[in-house]
Amino acid sequence: MAATQGYLALILHAHLPYVRHPEYDEFLEEDWLYEAITETYLPLLDSLYRLANDSVPFALTISLTPPLCHMLRDPLLQERYTRHLDRTISLVSHELDRTHGDAALSEVVRLYHDRLTKAQVAWEQRWSRDLVSAFAMLQERGVIEIITCAATHGFLPLMEAYPEAVRAQIRIARQQYREIFGRDPRGIWLPECAYFSGVESVLAAEEIRWFVLDSHGLMFGTPRPRYAIYAPTFTPAGPAAFARDRESSRQVWSAEVGYPGDPAYRDFYRDVGFDLSQEYLAPFLGADGQRKFTGLKYYRITGRGAEKEPYNRAWAMAAVEAHAAHFMAQRAQQIAQLREIMNVPPIIVSPFDAELFGHWWFEGVEWLELFIRKAAHDQREFAFTTPSRYLAEYDTHQLVVPSPSSWGNRGYWEVWLDDSNAWIYPHLHAATRRMIEVARHFRALEKLPPLVDRALSQMARELLLAQSSDWAFLMKTGTARNYAAKRTKDHLLRFTRLYDQVRAEFVDEAFLENCEWRDNLFPQLDWRVYA
User: Fold this and answer.
1) Looking at the domain covering 6-89+127-258+315-410, what would its CATH class be?
2) Whole-prediction pTM
3) Which of 74, 323, 400, 480 could form a disulfide with 259 if both were Cys (CB 3.0 to 4.6 A apart)?
């Protein structure tokens, strides 16, 4: 590392729940993936490769969660995304004609047409539909570090009573990472930054060197950290804890006080899928003709309660310029103040959901690239780094036992454990106990019937998928609540049916094949991890 006053570690958490429904020709919730590909992952790759090819000195950490990696490489979902993109381009082509007489709107439509056609070329030709390999090549070039997450983004503190379940979430994730990237992950994004005392021992056993937690998780640690959240600490088991810096994070993610709420930026919620007539939209919607977001949003945020005004790209880019410069100045000032009172160079850790950039905050990817360029060339207070690089350079740190914490509302478990979703946990725990029971029983047998072996692996898949923190989150927020509840129930019901068959030593092969066809992630999964 070059001599500097301090460091900034940008961490992007790229994750979506596992949504794949081969039993339907089209499925609304699969659009979550398609929107993220178009609006976040493709633009982000374009930006990162542009920075790398221009030899801009930067480093960035990104988590690619196991469910996301699997979905991005799934042939069925790749084909469906191609259809989704073709349909959206067809709609925007019709919109060019419809808005021809409106100068302001037609300019916005041309912007979308240009972005979507470039996305199509990138998807089909530049990356050959393999975005995971595109990110992997950036890691090979040394400009990003890819880290892992728990296997299905399970909320680990609510599995604390079942160490086998926690171990399964971490070990299966590490194994999938190795299969994809040809190496072991050095860091992990704990789902929801949720930490409980003891999880670091599981991480150490899987040779994971560091993790991220929220600021109060370190500040309330024992003993109190000497350098607060601006230096990592080692846990008794070994892995280092890096804490989120709320000041820098809030400036970026908060729609209330952060940059994305600026009235010059594009409004996320007003979409032509709800503005235009059903008759006009019918050819571009799903087979059921249901209204939904199309991704074509023509208005800027403007103001609360005000009539929306058309999006003006030049104004938005001027805001991007101002906000990139402001964020750079704020971090430089922050580093300079910290360096005066610290004996080691401070590190500011700024983690974000990757989908904030481009999807929720339309201009977010442009902001990120411009900030990186400015910070690389227009200041000398800080340099970019990753937690792994920081630990390699500075390997002596205080020993601290962190406090249980998460980055959810009020900082603990309430988002994932409240009146809206608490009903799921007795069922999840019962299934976990049964999984441990059968894993221990059948591991002791010298020879296992192939159908039983497959059924045990599928039981593990169903349990892992039911444990996803996304379902409890969606129940709490009310977004897709019914879908989240159904997913939890369906996985548990399939698990229970397979359990009954395994215990009866009679597996219905047709039912098992149907389960494997529906939920095909982790093809190399070994159920013995639960033993």
Assistant:
1) alpha beta
2) 0.96
3) 323
